[in-house]
Amino acid sequence: MTAVLERGLKPSWSWLGVDIYRIFHLAAVFGLTCVLLKVIQLYHQRQKLIKAFSRFPGHPTHWLYGHVHELLEGEVLNKVEQWSQKYPYAFPLWFGSFSAFLNITHPDYAKALFARGDPKDNVSYRHLVPWIGKGLLVLHGPKWYQHRKLLTPGFHYDVLKPYVLLTAESTKVMLDKWEQLIAQEKSVELFEHVSLMTLDSIMKCAFSYESNCQTDRENSYIRAVFDLSYLVHHRLRIFPYHNDLIYWLSPHGFQFKKACQPAHRHTDKVIRERKESLKDEREREKVQKKRHLDFLDILLHAKDENGAGLSDEDLRAEVNTFMFEGHDTTASGVSWLLYCMALYPEHQQKCREEIKEILGDRTTIQWDDLGKMTYSTMCIKESLRLYPPVPGVSRQLSKSITFHDGRTLPEGSLVAVSIYLIHRNPSMWKDPLVFDPWRFSPENVSDRHSHAFLPFSAGSR
What we know:
It is found in: Endoplasmic reticulum membrane. By secondary structure, the protein is mainly α.
């Protein structure tokens, strides 16, 4: 009877000769072995990082979170600025227990790093790839040089000169909108308006595209850029989100994919419509007569040494990169300049008087006027010093590096250059928090460290 019951309780697949309990046992052993191996790997990784950064003292870390929990509590830039005063030149920043950057805050260290050709890091930049693709911002090595060489003619002075009037037109649209808003006697968030103006400008100048984005009530591309910028920054600060599987299964990962869709639709539409317009013989003749092509036409007509053009993937990546980087960082720089001008009306008045004198009876800035705007240029540079549009860049060392003080970092280490902190380094700038445009007068610039002012970084970008 007992034997009959035992046979009845056996799983239905036992006739195949499979012992389900043995399978569970083996699976458990395999799983525990994998976990153990991962723990050992992470332990060795942490020990390697501790050894690499042993000569760089820094702020105390939490055993699990590193510095992340402190950075999440308040203003990140203010906090690291406090740490930079205690640990000059460079200090480690830990994102959890198994990932860390050396954060450079002194021009001597920045100069040593930028003199090399190290690739961008494989942590922060890779999070941008699903959005902008592998364009100039993300590429490195031979492909970066190939694309850079290809695009350089698009920034020739003769190409840039007519852009001044096009940008002036876009700015006038923005100012007309502001005049209407002023009548409502309410405060206005300028950054979105400035972003639309810079997007409108770059669409006209670099892509020969009339977007009318400033007069559209709701611009889905600008909204997508805001959302994607926030989500990339958020992902960097949440260590588990550095894992692709965890991130793409999370609510924020779904948000990111959703926000990419309008951004990609916008880019694809611009490329598609330009390709269509170039099918017209008159438009092709107009392009052929140009001494210098604009950015998108360079991409569409580009050929390598074998006569092959850019792939659709490369084309889309470069357009995505230039459209985002070209309008967003400019919008940030212009917005902070307006903030500084509002905060320091005495400097604003000097700029106004200078520009009025240059313009005379005219109402629009021309190319030749730009070189005469001495004081305004000094104010722009001082604003970029205090509020750089890109506060930092990062690299992964392709070989070990030795800094001027003898401290070294091994190959593979992640290094971040904090442009924000270099611009506020008290050993380079007297009263660094004071807005003083005269820092950029010719006599003051001549004695300054070559890497003390890096609003657009240095080296390969």
